[in-house]
Amino acid sequence: MARARAYREAAPSALIVYGVKAFPNVALLRLFAGEGLGADVSTLGELTYARKAGVAGERLIVHGNNKSDEELSAAVASGASLVVLDALDEVERAAAAGVPRVLIRVTPGIDAETHDAIKTGHHGSKFGLPPRQAREAVRLARAAGLDVAGLHVHIGSQLLDTSGVRMTIDWLAAFAAECRVELGWTPEIVNLGGGLGIQYVEDEPAPSPGEFVRALLTELDRAWRRHDLPEPRLVLEPGRSLVGPAAYTLYRVGVVKQASETATYVAVDGGMSDNPRPQLYGARYSALLANRAAEKPAGSFAVCGKHCESGDVMIESVALPEPRRGDLLAVPCTGAYTLGMGSNYNALPRPAAVLAAEGKARLIRRRETVEDVLRLEQG
Description:
Oligomer: single chain
Largest sheet: 8 strands, parallel, barrel
CATH topology of the largest domain: TIM Barrel
Helix content: 25-40%
Mean pLDDT: 97
Structural class: alpha/beta
CATH architecture of the largest domain: Alpha-Beta Barrel
Shape: globular
Number of strands: 16
CATH superfamily of the largest domain: Alanine racemase
Strand content: 15-25%
Distance between the termini: 46 Å
Radius of gyration: 22 Å
Low-confidence stretches: none
Strand order of the largest sheet: 1-2-3-4-5-6-7-8
């Protein structure tokens, strides 16, 4: 919970909401709620997680680039404080569902320095509205009787410096000033989304939550003053930076196979079904043998999963002691976008999740069984 507290301490007056998609888990959401964090949800399923965890409505923010009428109605029923409108046709549908208070998601056209698949603020993004449409959404929503509380912007995930977000804040201040001139409206809430990255490997350092938030606050104050705008309330939606560094995935080593003069594979009892990030994003990880951590490396090894894909390689090269069948391979920084993005490819059950703190551990998600995988089958 130290990283959650770091966000709260760096921005004590801001609303901090956890991006549930990073790792959806009821027990974890309860812990974050106890630290004063809310929840950022983007589907009916994620909203149900948050409600089951007892997250208060005033700390719920509902997203989604393709919200169903059922999801809009569920947002109202949950008492969600804000619904983020992502398309012009959502204005009428949100009003019909009884949504009281909204943000407008605007796309700034800023190309974040991250993997293409997790950029969200560039021209042509599937998320948000281009500036002209965003201003029209503000106008239409106000005309429909919605309380348009502010603006939302998010340029991407796994950001390793603050330059892109600071540029976005400058752009957003200018956009807010245009809204004031054209619409007689200024945002009382500015939601900057999430995006802070984490250090998966040694050569990819990332700012701490405190450093990241302080840089944002400094830029927000400067940009808003420059345009003589009233100070807004800040909302942040961290996900990866809260849970990513907190988790290790433990695999059991099986086959150790020398495939060529230069490649030796260490096969484990999981793979792309519990962590698809190496395949989706070219993500890199480190690893160690947890049961032999004090031993010196014997060489470089590739770590692969047990799936029927040549691409099911988790780590191309990592220094390890000579691996043996039965060893425990620990992969750090696997708390975000792993199990939550997992599948049952090859009918492989997904692993358990255990919460450990202060010398104690408890199960927060049980291991799946083959019977679980088959439960939905009919006929």
